[in-house]
């Protein structure tokens, strides 16, 4: 039986892959951040993302390139891809919101909803569930929310200032923007031509109760690949997951 929300689940997505990746040097000296391979997998981050999007019902992807765009384009041209991919390159910096608007203009179905993900996110969870959550809340935009582990050990104290426990790398008490989104078709018109949508579009939608937050399911794998340490940790975690 078809799920009642199946028709509103996106089949198109944007990957924002234009970042400099300066904190991942030397890996990013000769390639953009999404082209960095997760050790032991033989596949760049963007390869994992495209496989995940395909598993979740996506057929068309627009990849927004910037830094060392030709390296990414060459790989996409030569790889066996599970989805149809188109690349776009910003000729001038448009900011995060402007870049998203520019990429969205190249989606095959502007009148239908779409996913977006940052090019440095390595995750696995049900995008279909997130799309249904978005529809049920009548949202214009939905952000995936993660609780990353704090990289330090934490301490717990009692009311008298005595330390009662040590907790190694506890999850954050705050949820953060996990860099994965569901957008309704009208979202594109609300994006700035240039500038940062997280300072303009998102706060406006939040005031109108049109911005939803989808908590990542318990145990879902999520990591932002920002530093060399993140690469090492991702490789360790993937080995533990048997992937």
UniProtKB/TrEMBL annotation:
| Annotated signal sequence range | none
Question: Which residue range or ranges hold the Nucleotidyl transferase domain?
Answer: 13-239
The highest taxon in the source lineage is Bacteria
- Which SUPFAM superfamilies does this one have? Nucleotide-diphospho-sugar transferases
Show the GO MF annotations: transferase activity
List, alphabetically, the Pfam families matched: NTP_transferase
Q: What is this protein called?
A: Guanyltransferase
What is the source species? Streptomyces malaysiense
């Amino acid at each position: 039986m078809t799920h009642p929300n199946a028709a509103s689940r996106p089949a198109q997505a944007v990957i924002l892959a234009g970042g400099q990746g300066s904190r991942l040097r030397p890996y990013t000296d000769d390639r953009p951040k999404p082209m960095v391979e997760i050790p032991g997998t033989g596949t760049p981050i963007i390869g994992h993302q495209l496989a995940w999007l395909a598993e979740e019902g996506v057929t068309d992807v627009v990849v927004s390139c910037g830094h060392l765009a030709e390296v990414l384009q060459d790989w996409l041209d030569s790889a066996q891809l599970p989805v149809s991919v188109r690349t776009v390159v910003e000729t001038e910096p448009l900011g995060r919101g402007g870049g998203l608007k520019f990429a969205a203009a190249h989606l095959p179905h502007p009148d239908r909803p779409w996913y977006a993900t940052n090019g440095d996110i390595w995750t696995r969870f049900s995008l279909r569930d997130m799309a249904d959550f978005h529809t049920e809340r009548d949202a214009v935009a939905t952000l995936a929310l993660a609780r990353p582990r704090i990289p330090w050990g934490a301490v717990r104290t009692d009311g008298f200032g005595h330390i009662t426990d040590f907790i190694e790398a506890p999850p954050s008490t705050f949820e953060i923007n996990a860099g994965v989104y569901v957008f309704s078709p009208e979202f594109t018109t609300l994006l700035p031509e240039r500038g940062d949508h997280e300072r303009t579009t998102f706060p406006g939608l939040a005031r109108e109760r049109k911005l939803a937050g989808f908590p990542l399911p318990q145990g879902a794998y999520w990591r932002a690949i920002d530093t060399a340490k993140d690469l090492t940790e991702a490789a360790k975690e993937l080995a533990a997951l048997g992937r």
